[in-house]
Q: What sequence folds into this?
């Protein structure tokens, strides 16, 4: 008697494997891969500044494309042509120990009557080492100042 091989189409096997994961509403540490999920509450935009790890470096979303941090109030034009004012300016933060930063993107959440939320993934993320303030953490734990 001959045994039959059972063959499953690749798509069924893929769905079986894909269904084994755990779904999460938390953002990844780097803040850049949102996996296509729509989040109802704006989450902090987090990551690390690395050249060694940089502490006290200014990090911001460059929403106006000028490669400079723009403080508030900042006026941003939506794709619809409508303008919104971000009272705090471009989202910014100072990096902490280990280069960690967390940008508050709450002002990017808009009233549905104004338009869709502003997606932080559309903008370049900048970090600036500030002379006399930014510290570099080396592998040996040493800290050096930028001048």
A:
């Amino acid at each position: 008697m001959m045994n039959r091989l059972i063959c499953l189409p690749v798509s069924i096997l893929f769905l079986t494997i894909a269904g084994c994961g755990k779904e999460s509403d938390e953002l990844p540490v780097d803040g850049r891969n949102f996996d296509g999920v729509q989040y109802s509450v704006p989450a902090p935009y987090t990551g690390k500044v690395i050249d060694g790890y940089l502490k006290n470096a200014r990090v911001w979303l460059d929403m106006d494309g000028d490669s400079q941090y723009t403080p508030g109030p900042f006026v941003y034009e939506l794709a619809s042509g409508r303008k919104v004012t971000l009272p705090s300016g471009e989202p910014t933060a100072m990096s902490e120990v280990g280069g960690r930063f967390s940008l508050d993107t709450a002002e990017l959440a808009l009233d549905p009557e104004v338009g869709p939320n502003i997606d932080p993934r559309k903008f370049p993320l900048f970090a600036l080492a500030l002379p006399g303030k930014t510290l570099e953490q080396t592998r040996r734990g040493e800290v050096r100042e930028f001048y």
Q: What stands out?
A: The two ends are 81 Å apart (CA to CA). Residues 1-25, 27-41 have pLDDT under 50 and may be disordered. The CA atoms of residues 108 and 118 lie 5 Å apart. Strands lie at 45-48, 53-55, 58-61, 74-77, 83-86, 92-94, 100-103, 125-128, 135-137, 143-145.
